[in-house]
Amino acid sequence: MTNTLTLTAQDKTLLRTAAYGAVSLLAAADPAGSPHKAATAGSIALASSTGPIGHVLADKAGSITIQGKTVAAMADHVLPALTQVMQLLKAEHPVDADAFRSIVLRALDTAALAGAGRPGPAAADITNKIAQALDSE
Question: Is the pLDDT of residue 116 over 80?
Fold first, then answer.
C-alpha cells in the first residue's frame, strides 16, 4: 500500500524549508562545534529519509528559502514554518505529520553528533525550541 502525500508546490517548499531550516538553525546555534559538518550531516539525514515525506525532502525542486543571517532571525522564520507544516499535515495527513516530526528530530540528532559529538547549551536550547514548534497546536 502506497501512502500518497498530496501537497501543493507551495506546501512542499514550505515543508522542505522548515526541515532544512531546522538543521541550519541548529548548526548556526552552536558555532563552537563544527557548523558545516552539522549542517551537512543533518541535510544528508533529511535527504535520505523514506516514505512520502522523504520523497518531498529529496526533491529539492523549487527554492528552499531560509531567511535571516543571525540565529534569532532564522528562528523567527523557521520555527513558525515548522508549526505551520505540522498543522497542515495533522489536518490532511496525520500519519505523515508523525513521520515529519520524527524525521526532523532524527536529522537534528545526526547534525548534533556530527558537529561536536553532543550539543552545547545553545544547540540544546534550539533543539528544544524546534521540538516545541513541532508540537504546537
Answer: no
Residue 59 is predicted with a pLDDT of: 85
Cα–Cα–Cα angle for 83, 85, 2, nearest 5°? 145
- Which cell is 135 given? 508540537
With vertex at residue 122, the alpha carbon angle to CA 117 and CA 126, rounded to the nearest 5 degrees, is: 95
Query: Helix H segments across 1-137?
Result: 9-29, 35-47, 51-58, 71-92, 94-115, 121-135
| Span 37-63, pLDDT tens digits | 889 999 999 999 999 999 999 887 566
Global confidence as pTM: 0.91
Q: How far apart are CA 71 and CA 25, in angstroms?
A: 6
SS3 97: helix
User: How many CA atoms does the CB half-sphere of 115 hold within 13 Å?
Assistant: 30
C-alpha 12/C-alpha 1 separation (Å) is 22
